[in-house]
Amino acid sequence: MDTQMFIDEGVAILKEKIDDIAIIACSGGIDSTVAAVMANGAVGDMLHCVYVDTGFMRKGETEEVREMLNDLGLNLKIVDASERFFKHLEGVTEPEEKRKVIGEQFIRVFEEEQASCGAKYLVQGTIAPDWIESGGGERDVIKSHHNVGGLPDDVDLTIVEPLRNFYKDEIRNMAALLEIPSSNRQPFPGPGLAVRVLGDLTRKRTEACREACAIVEEEFEMGAEAGEMEIPWQYFAALLPVRSVGVHGDARVYGETIVVRAVRSIDGMSARYSEIPHSILQKISTRITNTLKGDVNRVVYDITHKPPGTIEWE
Ligand code: XMP
After folding, report:
1. Which residues line ligand 1 (CB under 6 A)?
2. Which of 65, 211, 257, 308 has the fewest Cβ atoms surrounding its Cβ within 10 A?
3. Neighbours of 301 (CB within 10 A)
4. Pairing of strands 251-265, 234-248
5. Over the stretch 107-143, which tens digit does the pLDDT of each residue have?
6. Domains along the chain?
7. Distance CA 128, CA 219 (A)
8. Distance from the alpha carbon of residue 74 to the mean position of ligand 1, in angstroms
């Protein structure tokens, strides 16, 4: 069966199933965007797309997602919930606890949006590996993954999952056909920068991490374009609550540490750290310490594979 037929069939099924207001949490990621565009094709403005800005998005991300979803003709509401997330995360530094708080707050925000638009249906961009992999087994929880849009089973909504039987490559083909431009972005964790800011989650420290991530992305992408390196599967910066003594001009500074992480991987289950030319790492280090003068005075590169490390630091 070809991709257009998959899409047409999906839209027809959605049309049949949804006869009232529906809601979808849209992060701008490929799965939720494909699901939203299909549902929009089926029921138009009866579909309410909600993008929750948690305050932990990448630099410029909310604006980019807004533009993309608007261009796709979706009925979109952006909810700035950052105040609430920062407030509930005050003093929370343990990674699993952080993830729990973020997951819970996300659900609270979403419930409020559901109540305000009176949705009866919940469209989700669940794809085949999502439910196959969570199907059981006695594995240790290494990290409780939170997917923006991954809501609990007890919500009082009829769940509709148009992509349940499809795999990532098929979703990519659908996205291309639907002219969705997000298909080649690198993976980004549901809790966002919150798992890249180790220690206290303040706005200031989050902003520092956001800047550092943007610098890493920019330098790697320029390096790859210039043929100096291969673009890693995933690449970012994390802010560590480790202070060290440094010097700026004549002054002593006592700032925190940025770690740069870049890996090669197929599916994120295992990974090898990427070998990056020193010239590029050096540019990154100079830009980060200049931009975050006083707050960050040391940049290090992580040379740990997964296992034993994980890709993210939390
Ligand atoms: P780890 O850090 O466990 O990550 O080696 C493997 C891949 O998953 C991403 N990741 C997440 N993705 N929700 C997600 O949707 C999450 O909570 C989450 N935590 C980690 C990580 O960025 C990497 O690509």
Report:
1. 143, 145-147, 187, 189-191, 234, 268, 306, 310-312
2. 308
3. 15
4. antiparallel
5. 899 999 999 999 999 999 998 877 776 654 445 666 6
6. 3-186 (3.40.50.620), 196-301 (3.30.300.10)
7. 35
8. 27
